[in-house]
Amino acid sequence: MNQPQSNDSYVLLGGDPATKRLKLLARIKWPTTKTLLQQVGIRTGMRCLDVGCGNGAVTLKLVLRVGPTGQAVGIDRDEHCLEFARRRAAQHKLPAVFRAENVTEFRAAPTYDLVYSRFLLTHLAKPEAALERMVQATQRGGWVIVEDIEFAAHFCYPACFAFSRYVDLYQRAVKATGGDPNIGPRLVSLFLDAGLDDVQVEVVQPTFRSGHGKRIAAITMAHIGEAVIQQGLASAQEVKDIVTDLDQFSADPRTILSLPRIFQVWGKKR
Description:
Blueprint: H1 15-40, E1 47-51, H2 57-66, E2 71-76, H3 79-91, E3 97-100, E4 112-118, H4 127-136, E5 138-150, E6 156-157, H5 161-176, H6 187-193, E7 197-204, E8 207-208, H7 216-230, H8 236-251, E9 256-258, E10 261-268
Parallel strand pairs: 1-2, 1-4, 2-3, 4-5
Antiparallel strand pairs: 5-10, 6-9, 7-10, 8-9
Helix pairs in contact: 1-3, 1-7, 5-7, 5-8, 7-8
């Protein structure tokens, strides 16, 4: 049996494949993230940090909302994704800043009014340490916001073996690298342990009958294929078959597919 490794390995492909997947995910996830940021109270002049920003989709939304008197900084360890983000910022003449930093190592002075992260802590062997760094980067009275998943809470209709196998393989692959694919319900406790006040939670689960959202399962399965094979969880042929079956299932207009259950948690620094 593969033993979990505490190396914060990322089971999904990086580089250009990550950029394309994150672009699609950002498109289908933005409506619920937008509602969350509005509920917390993002406003003109705020200084924001997007931790694990990927291709910068949320960072670029933040910089639009804080205006010329605010600031939006995105950090990530994937330089390819960051270059994509910088090109997008330049294309739209947006003053967002993107830096290559690893969340397990970054240090920032407590200067930000809002520190945000989405779908990052689930991949870390020590999410508590990453959250502590996020809190440290937040000034007193500022907000820390995290969106993360409960992967086991995926669903589809009708039942689909390939979908069930995908959900199982993803969880096993993340656990093998020391991550927690079902960290979502833990977030409130992590926030309280980090000393945050006024901790609040919402749960969302986008579900699709058609469109880009139904493609995420097949795309994600393809992108974890290398990790799944290396860990001995499935053969290359099985991975290929699962992706094919998921594509066929999602193409049927009578089926529905969900994203993981997503926990949105926010709290204020004392």
